[in-house]
Amino acid sequence: MAFMSDVAVKPPAILVIDDDAEIRYSLSRVLSSHGYQVTEAPSGEQGIALVKAGPAPDLVFLDVRMSGMSGIEALQHIRSANPKQLVVLMTAFGTAQTAIEAMKYGAFDYVMKPFDPAKVLSLAQNALKAHADLRAVGDYKPTINADDYREGIVGSSPVMQDVFKIIGQVTASDVTVMITGESGTGKELVARSIWKHSHRSGKAFIAVNCAAIPDNLIESELFGHEKGSFTGATVQRIGKFELCDGGTIFLDEIGDMALATQTKILRVLQQGEIQRVGGTETHRVDVRIIAATNKDLEAMVKAKSFREDLYYRLNVVRIKMPALRERGDDTPQIVDFCLQNLLKQRKTRVSKVSPEAMAVLVRHRWPGNVRELENVIYRSAVIAQGDAILVKDLPEEIREAVGVIAPLVATPSADPVVPAPVAVPVVPIAPAAPVLTLEAALDFVFTELAGADGPVLPQLERAMIKRALAAEAGDETKAAKRLGLTKAVLHKRSREA
Ligand SMILES: Nc1ncnc2c1ncn2[C@@H]1O[C@H](COP(=O)(O)OP(=O)(O)OP(=O)(O)O)[C@@H](O)[C@H]1O
Ligand SMILES: [Mg+2]
Fold it and tell me: What is the model's pTM?
């Protein structure tokens, strides 16, 4: 690996800025005993001068409270001289203000004094790894240009192409459409797209969430009411169907509609007319209905909780939205679409995703589908510290669900200055942390496995199979080739694991 060989030639340089000589000494010892090249500065001013004079250190440990210039001030100078400079702040006073200011002015992290040497080391490793990962992302080629998707629906998988075809087919007529699919799959987006492309696009599109309106109010909401028709009906009200005359009404969560209301919807469909609650007159309305649900309507019809005649009226054309996990390569495209939109709205400066983070996103099962993916991209972009989303920026539950292994931190030794070796966070698809040598890692793995139940090699084999599969995004042929196993053996072993 390129960085490992770089490290062999030139160890990462760390600058420690603290006005306390003892702290500088103990930190330098911990870091240099693990192969880092450490320089010290006794004040913020001198630290800044060293960073400006260059070559810039790979990482700066900076004390918050110093006589003379404060750490927060020094941080701002350092980051304005070198916006990519990695800085970890050190503080004995873990106030909310320090933490907030540290992160606001671009520190990578901050650490509390007195130090836990193991923590300091793993922090240094994590910071340097994140920096190396950011550099490694380099030129990023987005899979799509968001401007080409003004429709807002992204997807080139065969299942989504089928959806687009049906949308195209139903726009020419007024046929009733039923859209089904899991939550967050884009049912409302599709309904709007049908409307936009139809001859009704000049008139209203009104979405009604049937699950959100109480049963006793939904009829008044949909059909309106006459003044005095019930307690509280102090004025006449025009309902959504009348307001939507000439347009398209989207009845979302139709499976949650009460039977009495279902009967009235059926009447609109059959006769094209409505009656306001408490009224005697009928009013003609010309409304196209698009309905959506994530419920199993067929089962509801059998259980008699959904009217069979209404079901057939609504279900003239069915669009079944595929779950995101069924859409093959669409995930990276949706990720790029979300990022480019966030950039346009100035909600983020992040425009890239590291290959490892993208592999995690592609492998996740997304129970909340596109909506969940959208939220995850937004959250990750907000906390990303460079111009790319890295694995560390993804929410923990996503990393865990995909099987990115949590940090293993070895127990530090009793001597605070000579700590025990620290296991770095192992991300199976990411390169190992630069300062951990292969020999040290193997020693650690051997000690750990020898102390566990069962012989060492089968455990190691299982662990390596899991990592190879992760690194090859689940491709058994490629994973087997990497490991030097036949695909059959790999398949069998991964089943046993
Ligand atoms: N193919 C897609 N490309 C880009 N964005 C999408 C796509 N599908 C859905 N989205 C976005 O995902 C979010 C959820 O979509 P939408 O509200 O249409 O889903 P839904 O199926 O109606 O969800 P729910 O069942 O929870 O109401 C929206 O912000 C939408 O813009
Ligand atoms: Mg919806």
Answer: 0.74
